[in-house]
Write a structure and sequence with these properties.
The protein is α/β, with parallel strands linked by helices. The protein is 34% helix and 25% strand. It is globular, with a radius of gyration of 24 Å. The structure holds cytidine-5'-triphosphate.
Length: 397
């Protein structure tokens, strides 16, 4: 595999030599891309000798080979170790002032950051926000180890052991089956908003994180992805076509339009079951007589409709996946819903009491039509997404 090892200007750069050895000794081809200042810690000859490949830091060397694009495009994995606060900030904001940051923008493969810095820098709100952004986009940011730092101080900020970083990278490289190549998948994500008047709506707490993780992992597994996003404030997953909608009615239109030529539809969006019977054209004023009640009408059930269409032979997905967020009687409610909606898989989450909404982690039980349920242990939403695709892929004709 082609691995790019980005090296930031931190004292822990010397530990990246060991990481490089672990990659080359297990047969990977490694291209080291340090920042210019990283070479103050470990020099170019060391990286060149250990990797057996040329080492450059800026985009002006070997321009005829267009390195600022090629290196990222050809990579199967980019790992940045140590990732300084500066690199995390540049990556989060898409700056492209040197070869490493250009490579991070052109790479479509998994990216792993192994940060190392002083505790204050790691804990600073700016760094926290940058790490959040990178994680929301699908990069893996390994939490630094806790221990003795460069000076006399101790705390979180140490580069994890190179063997640990290597283990994370090896898992990422192993866990990328291209089993959705040539398939089209539609994923709905987020939560619908049902207008009351021009400024107010009925909504729900769905963040869209799980749906975006499904889209991102499907892209990584080779699928063409249409992500129908209802009001999620998240960066577009690289490689997915994003269609933005607000209400359940709009969501239905977008999903059904894309479903006709899709192999899989995953309804991860939280769809409002009801909407106000009329959306007022003028804002309700405090001085108005308070409306006695907002009368509601039922929204279409998109998932059930997909199931019905399939039963009546309309062209569309061969695998239909639903989600169910339940607060009580989780499994019993889930089984009833699976049957009622006519889907193949139903991913059931327990919600409430701080579980699932807006958190990067999730745990789920996937109910399988005509089969035994599959437990997905608590872990990143990406892992839950991969567990869903693991069940979807073998069901495709
Ligand atoms: N769903 C849908 N259209 C709706 C409501 C829900 O397509 N109008 C989909 C959701 O995207 C999800 C699944 O149906 O995949 C289950 O959603 P949920 O709200 O749990 O189901 P409901 O049928 O609304 O059941 P409940 O009585 O629990 O509200």
């Amino acid at each position: 595999m082609n691995v790019v090892l980005g090296v930031g200007a931190g004292i822990a750069a010397y530990k990246a030599c060991e990481l490089l050895r672990l990659f080359t000794e297990s047969g990977h081809i490694v291209r080291v891309v340090p920042t210019r200042d990283a070479l103050r810690f470990v020099g170019e000859p060391t990286w060149a000798a250990l990797s057996g490949n040329p080492v450059t830091t800026d985009v002006w060397d070997s321009v005829h080979e267009v390195p600022h694009v090629r290196i990222g495009q050809n990579a199967d994995l980019v790992v940045v170790a140590p990732a300084t606060a500066d690199i995390l900030a540049k990556a989060a904001h898409g700056l492209a002032g040197d070869l490493l940051t250009n490579t991070l923008l052109t790479a479509r493969c998994p990216v792993v950051f192994a940060p190392a810095m002083h505790t204050e820098m790691w804990e600073h709100p700016a760094t926290r926000a940058n790490v959040e952004t990178l994680r929301a986009r699908g990069s893996i940011v390994i939490d630094p180890a806790v221990g003795r730092l460069t000076g006399a101080d101790t705390g979180p900020g140490r580069l994890p052991d190179p063997a640990e970083i290597f283990a994370v990278c090896a898992r990422v490289l192993r866990g990328r089956p291209r089993d959705l190549a040539g398939r089209t998948v539609v994923v709905s994500a987020g939560g619908t908003r049902e207008a009351i008047d021009p400024v107010r709506y009925l909504g729900n707490r769905s963040s869209g994180l799980q749906g975006y993780a499904l889209a991102r992992t499907a892209v990584a597994r080779g699928a063409e992805v249409v992500l129908v996003s209802a009001n999620a404030a998240l960066p577009d997953p690289a490689g997915a076509k994003v269609v933005r909608v607000e209400s359940a009615v709009e969501l239905r239109e977008a999903v059904l339009a894309a479903a006709g030529s899709a192999d899989v539809v995953v309804m991860a969006a939280a769809v409002a079951d009801f909407r106000p019977a009329t959306a007022l054209e003028s804002k309700i004023k405090k001085t108005d007589d308070a409306p006695a009640a907002i009368s509601l009408v039922k929204n279409p059930d998109i998932l059930a409709e997909l199931g019905e269409r399939r039963r009546s032979g309309v062209a569309g997905p061969s695998v239909i996946v639903g989600f169910a967020a339940e607060t009580d009687d989780v499994l019993a409610n889930g089984q009833a819903k699976l049957a009622r909606k006519g889907c193949d898989l139903l991913v059931v989450n327990q919600v409430g009491r701080g579980l699932a909404f807006g958190t990067p982690d999730n745990a789920a039980t996937v109910l399988v039509a005509g089969g035994a349920p599959v437990e997905v242990p608590r872990g990143p939403k990406e892992d839950v997404a991969d567990a869903v695709w693991d069940l979807v892929a073998p069901r495709l004709p």
